[in-house]
Amino acid sequence: EPEVTQTPSHQVTQMGQEVILRCVPISNHLYFYWYRQILGQKVEFLVSFYNNEISEKSEIFDDQFSVERPDGSNFTLKIRSTKLEDSAMYFCASIPTSGGNEQFFGPGTRLTVL
Amino acid sequence: KQEVTQIPAALSVPEGENLVLNCSFTDSAIYNLQWFRQDPGKGLTSLLLIQSSQREQTSGRLNASLDKSSGRSTLYIAASQPGDSATYLCAGVPSSGGYNKLIFGAGTRLAVHP
Asked: Which residue of A has its CA nearest to B44?
């Protein structure tokens, strides 16, 4: 069964460093998402991406964040200069079309900023 | 702003009990709704999707319903088992537009003991 994959599973970085989190969505899906979950808190929407551009972003998704689909399979989230408060689990998700479809989530990347 | 409340926050039951988990939205205009399961430190597993034209969905021992007039959803788990122990998250796509971003509740942490 197709699934969303994410790498790495765990990333440890120093404050101020850049990190890139990688996702491979399900192959025929067209809409892509990043969410995050700070330990003990709700899952929060960060950004949605369609047709090679951001379609919606939350207040959390400031200038330090960017997303890219560099090729036909990968979908990346970059944090330019990490802060302690960026420590969280980051989930990628995808759906085939916009019509009320089930979102499939990857296993997540745990980001720890020291 | 759409907020999602899940009640109860935690539940501990003996094996075999039938359970009801509740979810409510401050804005009842929900396009579709998903229930997820999350094991500690893990990703999100989609359990059920209720699309805009539906009122309920069933999968095995799970049944979810959505009352769009009140913005309330219920997840019913029949004959609970220790393997059902996890956190259950409710998430909805607001009807007010957006590219299918999900708004999550904080979850119900379920423990089923033998």
From this structure: A105
Q: Return the CA Rg of chain A.
A: 13
How far A103 CA lies from chain B's nearest CA (Å)? 8
Handedness of CA A95, A93, A46, B85 (dihedral sign): positive
* pLDDT for the residue B95: 78
Q: Three-state SS across chain B? A: CCCEEEECCEEEEECCCCEEEEEEECCCCEEEEEEEEECCCCCEEEEEEECCCCCEEEECCEEEEEECCCCEEEEEECCCCHHHCEEEEEEEEECCCCCCCCEECCCEEEEEEC
CA B108 from centre of chain: 8
What is the rounded CA–CA span in Å between residue B79 and residue B32?
A: 27
The sign one gets for the Cα dihedral B33, B39, B40, B43 is negative
In A56-75, the residues whose Cβ lies within 8 Å of chain B are: 56, 58
Which residues lie below 8 Å from residue B109, measured CB to CB, with a gap of 6+?
Answer: B9, B10, B11, B86, B87
In tens, the pLDDT along B83-102 reads: 999 999 999 988 766 668 89
Evaluate whether B47 touches B37 at the Cβ level (below 8 Å): yes
Indicate if the pLDDT at residue B25 is higher than 80: yes
Q: Higher-confidence residue: B1 or B104?
A: B104
> Looking at residue A41, what DSSP letter applies?
S
